[in-house]
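Handout, tutorial session.
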Amino acid sequence: MGPHPAVAAIRLAVRRVLHDVLTDVQRSSENAPPRPPHEQSPQPLVLVACSGGADSMALASALAFEAPRLGIRAGGVTVDHGLQPGSDLRAAEVVLRMTALGLEPVESVAVQVGRSGGPEAAARDARYAALDAAAARHSAAAVLLGHTRDDQAETVLLGLARGSGIRSLSGMAATSGVAGRYRRPFLRIDRQTARKACMVQSLPVWDDPHNADPAYTRSRLRHEGLPALEKALGKGVVEALARTAQLSRDDADALDAWAARAESTVRDDAGLLECAKLYALPPAVRRRIVRRAAIEAGAPAGSLFARHIEEVDRLITGWRGQGAINLPGKVVARRQGGRLVIRQG
């Protein structure tokens, strides 16, 4: 008899992603200098980021099952954020669980969580920095993340609340990070399937109390916002939001590509942006060029919101001699001689 449907679903999702990783590894090896005949190419390593929760434990178990069948080494990393008493003991326990699944190497990484951008953003920044360092340390081909379809729906709603445009409605990408380091196999799998897979495999899971703490925006959205939407609109809201993410991502990617091509056509010989040529572009394309210029000047992407870009855009479309616009990161945008100048103040 085959595995439980929930287990089969998570294993299939992981298998597909591992095939993609192998394809990418093969492509990069073709472009690398040839190895001496006596040296064999090492088996690629894929790490799973595991908190001990149901989503990441289901992912860890699927990786441990599928990776050896494809000639891939499988390891794991858990990040200790130090935000709760006994978090170091919890991380050590997760290491033991991953080791019991057969993952190797396995490690716990302790981080210092700052305050920039709020507690959720600060914890996320610290976590990804630790995962980046672990991937580099172990020369990992990829790091798997356990974000589910439910997480994707929450991300879309958070983007909608920020009013940051179509890119923020795109949610999380299936592949992201430098050289496609991060892979999210579960974006089409709901949270309940992952939990069911853990239950039928008798995998112990840990429910992070922060996930139920109303002090956190995502927690309120998960336990109050989404249930209210489903009550008002009926079942299927999560699936619809996940579809919205994919459609928005396709549109945003196309507009980004258009903006990248158009940017060289709106700069003068000195590389400055010409307002008249920017004005002639569709607003969605023009604002992407402006945003990219602001980021290149030093504005942090995570702090640059739609309202900032709209203010700068008015220097192009509604010029009445207004003064400079202050942007995050001490970046200043002003109009000078028909040029849009964006630089550190």
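The second record follows below. Compare its token runs with those of the first.
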Amino acid sequence: MEGIPPNPIDANAADPAIDSNRIPPSRRWPVVFRLPVANPDEYAELMVGLMRESRLSFNYLMLVIGSCVIATLGLMANSPAVIIGAMIVAPLMLPIRGMAMGALEGNLVLFRTGILSIAVGTGIGVGVSFLLGRLVGLPQWGSEVLARTQPNLLDLGVALAAGGIGAFARVRKEIADSLAGVAIAVALMPPVCVIGLGLAHADWRTSLGATLLYVTNLLGIALACMVTFLAMGYAPLHKARSALSWMLGLVMLLIVPLGAGMTRLIYQARLEAALRSALLNKTITFQRVTLVRSDFNWVVYPPEVVLSVRADEPITPRQVTLLEEFVESDVGRPFTLIFQVVQAQEIRRETPAPEEPEDPVEEENPGIPANPVTPLSSLFHKGIIPPY
């Protein structure tokens, strides 16, 4: 066996630095990340389920009407518990997932079915809440309505997270029970009802704010569903690239108004903290004032801050001016300060006056006065006083 060169294949096999293709490590390409691919049975099951959920059916319409009535009454009653119940019943998230998958896969039938169901459900919600708003005629909005008129970037983050979990729960049957929590987190129906209530009272600012919140939730859920379905291997990347680009562009358009709302929220928190600190710690004049509540009006410029307080003594305009200038130097932005003062008075029930003790002489001789006075005429007759 001498003189025979060693087997080159055996030599390479003994050297772990060279792979089976005889490529050394220094010349290998990095591993390319590939998305998982769902098997045909899972893909078919998902498409059938999404089509069934997105279809405009009698059950869907009844759930939309019922959830809208519950949410509208809860908003007018300012009851968070009732509004949460409406969020659980509302079925608007189901066609959004179908629309997202249809756009991702290029399935026009599924995409149009989801769009139609979303449009009809939104129209019914606005119409029912409009009729209820006109019927009740609520004079002013509660905190639950006002909370849905000033969306910000936090709402977009909630919509993205809820949409991703909703799509993941649709793929994984074992976590389908979490859909109720997702529906509560994203809250699609209450903004729709606020739009109708605003239109019923010709309050365009309220309707526009609620519309922005609803569009934010809608697009955020759709984008998160697309990304989740793509990551789970239910759509090829070359088909999904165009739809993802369009949806991402639409979401980016919301960054400007949502960013303005986020800035306003931060400024409001700073201003409220500065006012509270000034009232409690930094000023001697207002340390005897009890802050009950604070309201902010951002429609006017500079914004108005209305403080409802209880005070033992009246508050003068000079004191309000000094406090306004003091807090403005701390916050760095102008604002108008308005006090609504409730005088603190201690009032108790009336107590009867104590009775005076009776004279003992009167008790012994009730018919004789205590200090008898003798008439002059009787003295004349008795001769004690001469008549001249």
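Points raised in discussion: The beta strands are 290-297, 304-311, 336-343.
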